[in-house]
Every structure is written in C-alpha cells, then in structure tokens.
Amino acid sequence: MGIKGSKDVQLNDVSKIERRMVEAMRKRAKAGPSPFKSFNSILMKFPKIDKSFEQVRGVFKKFDKDDSGTIDLEELKTCFRELQVEFTDTEVKAFHEESDMDKSKGVDFKEFIIVLALVYLLGETGAKPVKQKEEDKGKGSQLKNLKSRIGLAELESTFETIVDTFRFFDKDGDGYVSRKEMITAINEASPGQSSSGESIGVKRFEEMDWDKNGMITFKEFLFAFTDWVGIEEEEDADEDEEE
Ligand SMILES: [Ca+2]
Ligand SMILES: [Ca+2]
Ligand SMILES: [Ca+2]
C-alpha cells in the first residue's frame, strides 16, 4: 500500500545545478541570518546593484562574437575558457541550458547575469574540485579568477547582496522562497497594511515563480530581481504591466 517516495518525484525533476544552488543557499542559511533587517535597507542597494550589472554589459558584448544579442553555447565555451572558469563542456552546456530562461537557445544579457551568478555560487561551494594552476594556488576560487579577468570588482559584492536579499525572504533557510515567506517579507516592509501587503506579496511571488511550481529558486529570484533594479534590454523595452 502507498507509493513510496512519491515526494521525491519533484526532486528528480530538479536539475543538478539547481540542487547545487539550493545546497549553496542552505549552507549560507546555516552560517547565520541575512544581514538585512528590512526591505528598505535592500532598496537602498538598488542603484549600486544596477550600476554593477551595467558593467557586465561590456563583457556580454565582448563574448557575443556574432553580435546576435544572445550568447550561444560555443560563445559561452569561449567565454569560460577566456575567463579561466574551469568547467567541463558538459557542465558549460548545463549552465547554458539552466540560464536560458525562455528556452530560446541563447543566453541574453539578463540570462548572462544568471550564468555569472551560478558560476560564482557553485564555484564557491567547492561542490566540484577546481584545478588550479600552480601560480594561482592560494589566490582563491574561480570567482577570483573571473573577477580579475573581467575586471569587475563590484560584481562579487553585488552577488553577495542579492544572496543576502534572497536569504531575507527565505526565512526558514531551506533554499527556496515560498509564497508564505514572500507575503511575510512584504508585510514586514509595510507594517499595518497587512491586506495590501498580502496581495502585493502574492503578486511578487507570481512574478518570480517562473516555472509556476510554487517555489522560488535563487535563479528565479535573480532573474526577476534584474527587473526590480531597473535593468533594461537594449532593444525591445519590456512593456510594463499595470500596477
Ligand atoms: Ca551570439
Ligand atoms: Ca524557504
Ligand atoms: Ca519555481
């Protein structure tokens, strides 16, 4: 009687990268609570975050060799090679697929930020041993390489800020933001207006839950976050939904 392990079905559908990402978030949560105490303190970081994302645009353009507006798999392989981010071809392909949110077979600028964030987070957890050259020993993780190569010193702190923001929402530290957690966080941001806080929370949650599975992963969070801070696509400006 009863089907054993039916709860695991969903987990099996989760990609390896997503699982590693969830692990990375859980590890952070164990280390302590988010330094952010209010949503307002997060909002104050937005201009700085936006600025560092804009710096990534130059990197994106550099690796979009054919100027197509997206980075295809071959271009991403070149990118990783030149940044000396050491992942196997299979892994680069997985990163590419994982970050291609709209499954358009190319990584656009916003999706490229996801690639870099995944590289940063997963490189850092040491989930996979990284071969380091003798002269790089002691200089640290892949990100250090990444950072020095592309000269984006602010990107590391931006990713940290966004991870801390995610952790502000992920109250129970399980590596996902649930609908309830989103509503709680939004309510904290506007105390005394619990009914509007709740509907805003639901709206934000639905915006962020890209695959509509009832959980927000860090990837989904980051993807929506790039809109929050005001990144704009160069060509087709997204039509804003009515508030
Ligand atoms: Ca391209
Ligand atoms: Ca959670
Ligand atoms: Ca989801």
From TrEMBL:
Stored InterPro entries: CML21-like, EF-hand-dom_pair, EF_Hand_1_Ca_BS, EF_hand_dom
Keyword Calcium: yes
Pfam family, any one: EF-hand_7
Keyword field contains Oxidoreductase: no
Keywords, alphabetical: Calcium
Domain EF-hand: 51-86, 157-192, 196-231
GO MF term set: calcium ion binding
Protein name, entry field: EF-hand domain-containing protein
Species of origin: Selaginella moellendorffii
Origin organism lineage: Eukaryota, Viridiplantae, Streptophyta, Embryophyta, Tracheophyta
